Amino acid sequence: MFGYRILGFGSFHSSTDYSADFLVIAGGGCGGGGGPGGGGAGGYRASFNSETSGGGGSSETSLTLSLGVEYTVTVGGGGASNSANGANSLISGTGITTITSIGGGGGGGGSTAAKDGGSGGGARQSFTTNGSGTANQGYDGGTNNGGGGGAGEAGATGYGAGGTGKGGDGVASTISGSSVLRGGGGGGYALDGGASPAAGGSGGGGNSGGSGTANTGGGGAQSDGDAVGGSGVVIIRVPTANFSSTTTGSPTVSTSGTDTILVFNASGSYTA
Predict the structure, then answer these.
(1) How far apart (Å, rounded) are the C-alpha atoms in residues 262 and 270?
(2) Which of the chain's ends, N or C, has fewer CB atoms near its CB within 10 Å?
(3) What residues pair up with 182 in beta bridges, in sequence order?
């Protein structure tokens, strides 16, 4: 039809359009200070190979990219001070609905309540007000010095309530060519013969007062210092036959089968 094809009802796109899959993970929340709750993992949104998004959400619809259009990639940093939320990660550009993953919620600590986020922060001691996760991105944090929520499960209840305080586990994706687990919540405080630091969730969550792992969106654990959240990551996977090498931000570029994969560990852009 004169070089055009119809996508949807009344929506026209050039025949040079092509599909691209994505994984967009925001920065994880910082753990609270003084032995409180763990930070929540960054929001987790995925479209590749029917893999689930965070919070038990379904796989999303692939993007349709248009030749010559520049798409901006923003990679959110982790929360960098006690109880701070992580920053959002996103893909934006002309002709697409912006894909935004919400930064992980900071863990409660001192007089600061746990915060909502992509996944929620764990509550501080003796508090049941945990941070809430965002629908289709992540789970809630635990209560009573609980673990931060993860992309794959809620943070566990912590010290004072007989719980483990463990951070919620993340979700695995094969978009980069092999299975990688990301989006774990930070550990809170457990009751184990007395208060003790709890394990972070699998997928980059901080353990025993430690920070979340960079470029996983993992939440930082509870800490007497600043157990910061892990930065996020944005991955775009396109057919190699359509791949353009025009990028900014120095993404890592690799191939798997008939596809080319761009892993953005820092903000940049891709021109289709």
Answers:
(1) 9
(2) N
(3) 171
Does residue 195 sit within a domain? Answer: yes
What's the token pair of residue 87?
A: 């920053």
Q: Does any domain span residue 36?
A: yes
> With a threshold of 0.85, does the pTM exceed it?
yes
Query: In sequence order, what DSSP letters do the residues of 16-54 get, joined into one string?
Result: T-EEEEEEEEPPPPPPPBSS-PPPPPPPEEE-GGG---G
Low-confidence ranges of the chain (pLDDT < 70): 1-15, 35, 161, 191-195, 225
Q: Name the domain count of the chain.
A: 1
In a domain, 8, yes or no: no
Distance CA 209, CA 190 (A): 12
- Whether 116 and 105 have beta carbons less than 8 Å apart is answered as yes
Structural domain contains residue 14: no
User: For residue 77, what pLDDT is reported?
Assistant: 98
